[in-house]
C-alpha cells in the first residue's frame, strides 16, 4: 500500500543537544491554532492509536515525520515559517532542511528488506520485561522476532492493510539495559533486522514512539 509521508531533517547552526519532546513542545507552542497543532495537542492526536506526527533526534539532528495525507499537509503548511527551534532560552537556527515528501510503501513485501534502528527500539513493556530477563539467548531472539512481527501487524491493522502471507523476521539485535537507557524502565534494543515487510524510512515502531524511539532506516 502506498502512503503519503513527509520527512524533515533539520541541520542547525549549533549542536542540537535536546530531546525529541523539546521539539514537539516548541512546534506545538509556536504553531498553536494551526493544523499541525491538532496532531500535537488536539483532536487528531486522540483520533489515531498510531502517532501520525512523530518527532525524533537522529545523529544529533532534530527530525519530524508525518504519515498520512492530513498530517503531511499540516507539515507542509508550516515549512515556510519554520526557521529555528527555540528551547529553554537557546535558539537552534536551521541552516538546512532535508525534506523527503513522497508516497512510500507500507505493508507486506515479496522479498526481505534490511533495516536498522536509527533510534533505540523499546520493544518490551513492564509485563514481558521480567519474562525476557530469564530467557536464554535463543529464546530471546525468537521473542524479539515475535515482537517485531506484532509491531508490523499493528501497523497493518491501523491502515487496513491485508496480510496474505506470514510476516517473517530475522533479527540481529543488541540489548540496551535500563541503566544505559535511563528514559526507558525496560531498556531498549539497537541493531538490524530483516523482514518481508515494507516500512517507510524513519517511521517508528514499538513503544514510546512519542518520545522518539523505534525509528527504522532501510539499509542498502
Which descriptors would you attach to this protein?
220 residues, alpha+beta, 2 domains
Q: How would you characterize this protein structure?
A:
With 220 residues, the chain is of the alpha+beta class. It folds into two domains: 2-104, Alpha-Beta Plaits (2-Layer Sandwich); 106-218, Alpha-Beta Plaits. The chain has five helices and nine strands. The protein has helices at 20-30, 43-47, 69-78, 126-133, 137-158, and strands at residues 2-12, 53-58, 61-67, 84-87, 90-105, 107-117, 169-176, 188-198, 216-218. A hairpin with a 2-residue loop joins β4 and β5. The mean pLDDT is 93.
The percent range for helix content is 25-40%
Alpha-beta content class: alpha+beta
What is the makeup of the main sheet?
Answer: 5 strands, antiparallel
Order of helices and strands: EHHEEHEEEHHEEE
Question: Order of strands across the biggest sheet?
Answer: 2-3-1-5-4
**What integer is the average pLDDT?**
93
Q: Could you name the ranges where pLDDT drops below 50 across 5 or more consecutive residues? A: none
What is the name of the CATH topology of the largest domain? Alpha-Beta Plaits
Quickly count the domains: 2
CATH class type of the largest domain: Alpha Beta
Shape: globular
Q: Could you give the distance between the termini?
A: 21 Å
> Could you tell me the strand content as a percent range?
35-45%
What is the CATH architecture annotation of the largest domain?
A: 2-Layer Sandwich
List the helices and strands and how they pair.
Elements: E1 2-12, H1 20-30, H2 43-47, E2 53-58, E3 61-67, H3 69-78, E4 84-87, E5 90-105, E6 107-117, H4 126-133, H5 137-158, E7 169-176, E8 188-198, E9 216-218
Antiparallel strand pairs: 1-3, 1-5, 2-3, 4-5, 6-8, 6-9, 7-8
Amino acid at each position: 500500500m502506498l502512503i503519503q509521508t513527509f520527512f524533515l531533517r533539520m541541520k542547525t547552526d549549533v549542536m542540537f543537544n535536546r530531546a525529541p519532546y523539546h521539539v514537539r513542545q516548541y512546534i506545538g507552542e509556536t504553531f498553536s491554532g494551526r493544523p499541525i497543532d491538532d496532531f500535537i495537542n488536539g483532536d487528531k492526536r486522540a483520533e489515531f492509536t498510531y502517532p501520525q506526527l512523530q518527532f525524533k533526534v537522529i545523529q544529533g539532528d532534530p527530525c519530524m515525520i508525518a504519515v498520512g495525507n492530513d498530517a503531511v499537509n499540516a507539515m507542509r503548511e508550516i515549512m515556510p515559517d519554520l526557521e529555528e527551534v527555540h528551547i529553554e532560552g537557546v535558539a537552534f537556527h536551521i541552516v538546512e532542511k532535508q525534506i523527503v515528501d513522497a508516497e512510500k510503501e507500507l505493508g507486506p513485501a515479496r522479498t526481505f528488506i534490511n533495516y536498522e534502528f536509527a533510534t533505540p527500539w523499546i520493544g518490551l513493556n513492564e509485563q514481558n520485561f521480567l519474562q525476557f530477563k530469564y530467557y536464554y539467548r535463543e529464546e530471546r531472539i525468537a521473542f524479539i522476532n515475535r515482537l517485531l512481527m506484532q509491531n508490523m501487524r499493528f501497523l497493518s491493522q491501523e491502515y487496513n492493510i491485508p496480510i496474505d502471507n506470514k510476516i517473517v523476521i530475522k533479527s540481529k539485535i543488541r540489548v540496551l539495559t535500563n541503566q544505559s537507557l535511563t528514559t526507558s524502565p525496560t531498556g531498549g534494543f539497537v541493531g538490524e533486522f530483516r523482514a518481508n515487510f515494507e516500512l517507510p524510512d524513519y517511521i517508528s515502531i514499538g513503544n514510546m514512539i512519542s518520545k522518539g524511539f523505534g525509528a527504522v532506516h532501510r539499509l542498502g
